[in-house]
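Q: Two folds, back to back.
A: First:
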Amino acid sequence: MITLSPRLKTAADMSIDAKRIIDVGCDHGYLSAYMLMARNAQFAYACDINQGPLDNAAKTAAIYDLADRMEFRLCNGLEPFCGDECDTVFICGMGGELIADILSRATWTIGKTLILQPMTRSEKLREFLSRNGYGIECERAVEDDGRLYSVMRVRGSIGDCGKNNGYLYSQNFIKDEFYYRYIGKLLQKYRDIYEAKLNSNKNVSEEQRIINILEDAYAYR
């Protein structure tokens, strides 16, 4: 059985009854293979903008005898798909703004379950989701290689994307140990920005607003 990184394992575990999946930015195809072997998915499209990852994914499929249940597509995001091919889309390991751009060019995704794992700028992704009719049904933090990330399960209009929280976290963020560590890291980041701007005689009203939001979230640990 394939052992996934904590990020990808969390993403896989957050899917619900996924049968036909699209894995955007498939790397070695481990997530697709895991979904087929361990989570009862029936078929997986492994996609990447570069040929190398697709070749690696094909090797993974061959090793685990999954070639007849996987298709490999060289493509930019979700451009070759219309939505009929899948019920669940995984986009993991990319910047939040890039994920938002991919979704903006595939409006059919609003009718699917999306498992999103931004590496950076998650607040920009939450803002995009909120402004375009998506909702975060569930969100949780995970530690991977010493860093903390969020993983989101998104569906059309179901759930809050964190508009009232400055898009720093959603209301459906699971409040476990990693959540408070995630909030704590954000809080330290914005306190550092606040101090640096204050020492440069710059306006810190926005940083103070964000710090207040995060302090309020952290206070309930």
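A: Second:
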Amino acid sequence: MRPLFHPAMEDVQPEAILHALSDPSRAAIFAKIMSAGCVEACAAVSAMGDRVIPKSSLSNHFKVLREAGLIRSERHGVEMRNHSRWAEVDARFPGLLSAIINAYASEGGNGPRG
């Protein structure tokens, strides 16, 4: 299998983060991973309210989040474990992620939604 791309934190750009979190589904996925610390099954984040994100779309969302530097994904057998890189991103861009997540929360009342 091909190795997964994870940018070094010094290579992470704010425009990549803004792009990744501009999609409400990706923002909701990131918020779930962030609150859980680690998500072992992609299916755990596929339900967004009353709809389910298709597996192909979910894979793309994880790729965008990973390549923006927001999550780290590790293969464990047939599972993919996804970890938040919140602390690393917040150290590089203090307050950026909080501002984005809080903006979704104030807009919808319950954080990012799909």
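Q: And?
A: The helical segments are 14-22, 24-36, 55-67, 86-92, 96-108.
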